[in-house]
Amino acid sequence: MGHLTIVEEKFIFTPEAKKKILILLGVGVFLFVVGLWLATRGGHQDHAEGHSQVATQQLVASIDVAAASDTHAEGEHHETAGWLKRLYTTLWMNNIYFVGLGIIGLFFVAIQYAAQAGWSSGLKRIPLAMGHWLPFAFGLTLVLWFVTNHDIFHWTHSSLYGEYVDEAKTQPNPDYDHIIDGKAPYFFWPGEAGGFPIFYIARMVIFFGMWYWFFTMIKKNMMAEDLEADTKYWFKNRSISAWFLVFFAVSSSVAAWDWVMSIDTHWFSTMFGWYVFASWWVTALAMITLIVVYLKDAGYLKVVNANHLHDLGKFVFAFSIFWTYIWFSQFLLIYYANIPEETVYFIERMTTSPYSWIFFTNLILNFVLPFLLLMTRDAKRHLSMLKVVCPIVIVGHWFDFYNMVTPGVMKNDGGLGLLEIGTAFIFLAAFLWITLNSLSKMPLFGKNHPLLEESLHHHI
Amino acid sequence: MDADKHFVVGIFNDEDVLLDGIRKVRSSGVKIQEVYSPFPVHGIDEALGYKKSRLPIAAFMFGMTGTSLALLMQIWMLGYDWPMIIGGKNFASLPPFIPVTFELTVLLSALGMVGTFMIVSDMKPYKWPRQFDIRSTDDMHVMAIDLAANGGKSKDELKRLLSDSGAVEVNEKSFE
Question: Is residue B105 part of a domain?
């Protein structure tokens, strides 16, 4: 172990690897097109205007008194076709899921610096490469938000605000929603409620802007360290990371409220920021581990051995349990308190078709399987078991995000078919392309990292 | 000669020397009774050829016992013995049982592991541990070789082997 001479490695993004990703993209596009075609002419959507819509509204109205006003609000606006709504939903859901993979790449690197961790010195470039998704995620989030806002975010409808229609305050606004109106400053400050959501968009831009700025700073220092063996870069990155972590602690929570929780505008959960973070974090840990495993398989990363894999495996194992802990903490309180405006969230997901099976599959894929499969020491140290568990976790949390976003938008007209799978494939192919491409443009590990030697002697 | 009574004891003052010494002693066919260290030495299990511990299996079994006991207890108490209406839920409903189940799983697996470890390591309350050299609690590594399991070597040969393997001091120790 200790006698290994450090040879600088460079990942080569081979034509075969590119071909595989392009095939994934091709399959994704094919599934997407077929899925979209099926959705536009699918029988399911035919009664979207008919009885199923009515049933939804009755269901919602009977559970959530405030939501009854949805019926009016929707009626006044142009009703988007069911297939288009479904398309928007899956685009937004996949985008938020992959935003997580990108930002957690940076978060992982920052955690390692701030904790002065030595063990991870040899594999930090993989999460760093994942961070290159951030600018694309920024563009996608902004564009998708402006395209989809009225269909996904109920609170963007201007008719919900203003108690009276006229100046003299004699005619009450039939669409007025007292609860959403109370939350209006959170979206529209300093502008007028129902106008352009200045505060909301500003947060989106500032978060992505700051995340990307921190990313470029940390990357710049890592690259400079490759050229000049000086510990000052490590110290600089440590303090940048500490500031980033403070910023991320707040921004990740607020981002989760903004981009996911505000879909169910009436509902709120104080755990939600943590919940989305936990889901993002464990997904990205599984993705980092999987990329490391495949790089090892391809003969790269001589500086990473079973001990480092063991640590990554422990991360996936532990944070699968952490996610479950957060999931359960949110569920138990709402279950026990039994307040209608809170339980509606779980009724929509747990006992409503077509989300019920996803709700329970979510728990099996993200808790039961990782917990049992990764429990032993050997399972975490061997490539073969990690190759089974990491994809399970990655797919499992895709379902998790599906169920966070879709029921709130589609009510019980949601679908999980070729369209959704195809979109996920397209996003995955794009994400992998960006990640591997940027990984091939830098050394696979920092040969001047001050803690690399410590990492080589890592033994657990 | 009686087994487990008379020992040759090598004192080492460096863990790298100790690890090399262990390999050298074992490769010459001599069985090492035990090595005592003041701090954990990485790689010593492999050097001593220890088999993988089965403690995790015991922990899992104890944990499952805790899970089952906790669930049975709560289902029996709140479902059958003394049903109570809490928040309008079913008498025996799973979600509120989870925290107690979790705690009992952790408690039983932890206590079970500690108990198993103490029994396996021969640490009983009435038993005073044998001390080969008191410095193993301070700054020295202590390697004990049972004279009855010496791989056909005499006492003097064993002493020489220990000195050659890097021991700074070689003693004899007998227990009644």
Answer: yes
Domain C-terminal end among B105, B120, B135: B120
pLDDT for A242 beyond 60: yes
State the virtual CA torsion across A377, A119, A218, A434 in degrees, nearest 10. -40
User: Do A336 and B95 lie within an 8 Å CB cutoff?
Assistant: yes
pLDDT at A53 over 80: no
Query: Of B120, B147, B165, at which residue does a domain stop?
Result: B120
Q: In chain B, how many domains are there? A: 2
Clarify whether residues B99 and B138 are in a common domain.
no
* Residue of A441, A434, A438 lying closest to A25 (CA atoms): A434
Question: Hey, are the CB atoms on A375 and B60 less than 8 Å from each other?
Answer: yes
Distances (CA, A) of A240 to A67, A81, A120, B31: 44, 47, 18, 54
Look up residue B32 and give its two tokens. 């090492």
Nearest 5°: phi and psi at B36?
-110, 130
A423-440 average pLDDT score: 97
Mutate which of A119, A335, A371, A380 to test chain B, going by most B C-beta atoms within 10 A?
Answer: A335
The parent domain of residue B76 ranges over 55-120
Which letter does DSSP use for residue A172 in this model?
B
ipTM: 0.84
Centre a 10 Å sphere on the Cβ of residue A318 and count the other Cβ atoms it contains: 14
Q: Which residue has the tokens 């599906």?
A: A402
Residue B1 belongs to a domain: no
In this structure, the answer to whether residues B71 and B18 fall within a common structural domain is: no
Asked whether residue B46 falls in the same domain as residue B59, the answer is no
pLDDT, tens digit (0-9, with 9 covering 90-100), for A7-35: 889 999 999 999 999 999 999 999 999 99
